[in-house]
Specification:
Elements lengths: L8 E3 L5 E3 L5 H4 L2 H4 L2 H8 L6 E3 L5 E3 L22 E2 L2 H23 L10 H17 L5 H13 L10 H7 L7 H8 L6
Parallel strand pairs: 1-5
Antiparallel strand pairs: 1-2, 3-4
Helix pairs in contact: 4-5, 4-6, 5-6, 6-8
């Protein structure tokens, strides 16, 4: 635990400080890909191996950084390396990795009826992840638009994502004209029981 004292707070380029929650499964699996190699190496400094439980309940190893060659300078375990600084791209990637979980949590709190009962949670996450990716491809940055697409994805158990008219509708969508939720309902009506 003392080896991670210097990395428990992440500092951004604009001076913000965030707690790096190493037990947060929302981003833990993507840290190796999302952090710059020097930051990933610094985070893994005290470890020989790192395994996580994935969304399917399986134990998965994280890719460890390459070992430091013999004779190379390595800081002592108790030596401070200063602030754990991440750049804007790293921050954006970490936020993007957490976005499906943020949307699922919002759906759970605000409109839980859209979440399929008894569905495999990993599948729900995959549907919402695909909705987030599609929203990003079409420049849908507004949280309400992302939530509408995630909700429709859950209501249709992901089928809307393969609907042939969806990409064209998203390409034509103009925020402020009509809500994305209304347009999605017209495109793919949901049965109300």
């Amino acid at each position: 635990a003392t080896a991670w004292q210097d990395v428990k707070w992440v500092h951004t380029e604009d001076g913000q400080r965030f707690l790096l929650r190493l037990a947060d499964t929302r981003v833990l699996s993507s840290l190796a890909q999302d952090l710059q190699p020097h930051n990933w190496k610094r985070l893994c400094k005290p470890l020989l191996a790192w395994h996580i439980v994935d969304r399917f309940g399986g134990l998965q190893p994280l890719k460890m950084p390459m070992a430091v060659p013999n004779g190379a300078e390595t800081p002592k375990p108790h030596e401070s390396l200063g602030l754990f600084q991440i750049n804007d791209k790293e921050l954006a990637l970490l936020l993007d990795a957490a976005q499906p979980d943020v949307l699922i949590n919002t759906l759970f709190e605000q409109i839980p009826d859209v979440l399929p009962t008894g569905a495999d949670q990993a599948k729900v996450h995959a549907w919402v992840r695909q909705a987030c990716d599609l929203a990003a491809q079409h420049g849908l940055d507004a949280s309400g638009d992302q939530l509408a697409l995630a909700a429709t994805s859950c209501l249709t158990e992901g089928r809307v994502l393969a609907y042939p008219a969806l990409p064209g509708m998203l390409a034509r969508y103009q925020p402020g004209q009509a809500s994305l939720a209304d347009q999605l309902t017209e495109l793919f009506p949901v049965d109300e029981d």
